[in-house]
Amino acid sequence: MMKKLNKQVLLPTVVALLPILMGVIFYDKLPAELPTHWNFSGTIDGYSSKAFTVFGLPLMMAAITLLVPFFLALDPKKANMSSALKLLVQWICPVMSLVLSTSTMLIGLGYSLPIPLIVCILVGVMFMIIGNYLPKTKQSYTMGIRLPWTLNSEENWNRTHRLAGKLWMLGGFLMIVCGVLTQYIQSNLLLTLIFIGIMGLTLIPSLYSLWLYKKGI
């Protein structure tokens, strides 16, 4: 069991640390400060030191990656967890580290990259993958729409997650569309729409599950 866990954790951790290799190779060519925050229109509005960007960010992502299995193991219903969703959770930080840290350094080297579009595609694909597996997820205290009535009723849980799965699939697709539209729609309006949409992904299934509970399901 420990050997299997080590294999499952080792590769994602290594991937999370890969940007450090690129940073070391191009360290002398990188500026003293690198962009680490953008507004939704793609304008840089935050910088961090070269050392923190090259070493600190990947190390933080790797540390979170190492901690994920321990947090999942604390769930009393861990046996019910979807193996696919566990794998997805394990890979979120490594993928973010690889894509975003690499993009940041490429920008520091003078390349022009559409960061809002990259982030929207990354988040949108993640939402769609989660949406695909939500209907197959069994009751647990770590993954899914965890409410008193969903945790106490398997039927409530299953119906709620069937609806949530469809919404998250749709939400992921719309997130990618929003990334494409960043060039054409005012950023504040688009950001507001995305915020409302993300809130709806949780709020609508939660209200639906409450409605089922009121019906005795």
Notable characteristics:
two-stranded antiparallel sheet, mainly alpha, flat, 7 helices
Radius of gyration: 20 Å
Helix share, percent: over 70%
Distance between the termini: 38 Å
Q: What oligomeric assembly is this protein in?
A: single chain
Q: What's the total helix number?
A: 7
Structural class by helix and strand composition: mainly alpha
Number of strands: 2
Q: Spans with pLDDT under 50 lasting ≥5 residues? A: none
Shape: flat
Whole-number tally of structural domains? 1
- Average pLDDT figure: 85
Description of the structure:
- This protein is mostly helical and 217 residues long.
- The protein contains seven helices and two strands.
- Helices cover 71% and strands 6% of the residues.
- A hairpin with a 5-residue loop joins strand 1 (33-38) and strand 2 (44-49).
- Helix 1 runs antiparallel to helix 2, helix 1 (2-25) runs parallel beside helix 3 (83-108) and helix 6 (154-181) runs antiparallel to helix 7.
- Strands 1-2 form a two-stranded antiparallel sheet.
- The mean pLDDT is 85.
- It is flat.
- The protein has one domain (2-214).
Topology:
Blueprint: H1 2-25, E1 33-38, E2 44-49, H2 50-73, H3 83-108, H4 115-133, H5 148-152, H6 154-181, H7 187-214
Antiparallel strand pairs: 1-2
Helix pairs in contact: 1-2, 1-3, 2-3, 3-4, 4-6, 6-7
Summary of the model, kept short:
The chain is mostly helical.
